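hey so i finally got around to running the thing on that chain from the lab meeting. sorry it took forever, my laptop kept dying and i had to restart like 3 times. anyway pasting the input first so we r on the same page abt which one it is
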Amino acid sequence: MTTANTKALRETHPAKPEIRIEDRRTRTRRIGREVGTLAVNVYERGISDLVAFEKDAARIAPYPWMKSALTMSAGLVEDVGAAYVKTARQALK
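ok and heres what got predicted. didnt touch it at all, straight out
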């Protein structure tokens, strides 16, 4: 009994067309902007949550100096956060 070894020939697939470098750059920039925008949105949300927490803490603080310190801290964090978010959004344009 003779057996013949016959291997199936692999089909050659046509080569994938290369994506142009400019298309990759455009896509990479778009994805970078989307990720950056998402990160800025998350940061902005975190800042607003922190400011809300500090304002709530100031509202229930038993001492006047503590109320003023928490209120001042909340205002400072809010202002600095807003400046950072504004700058980051301008950079992402």
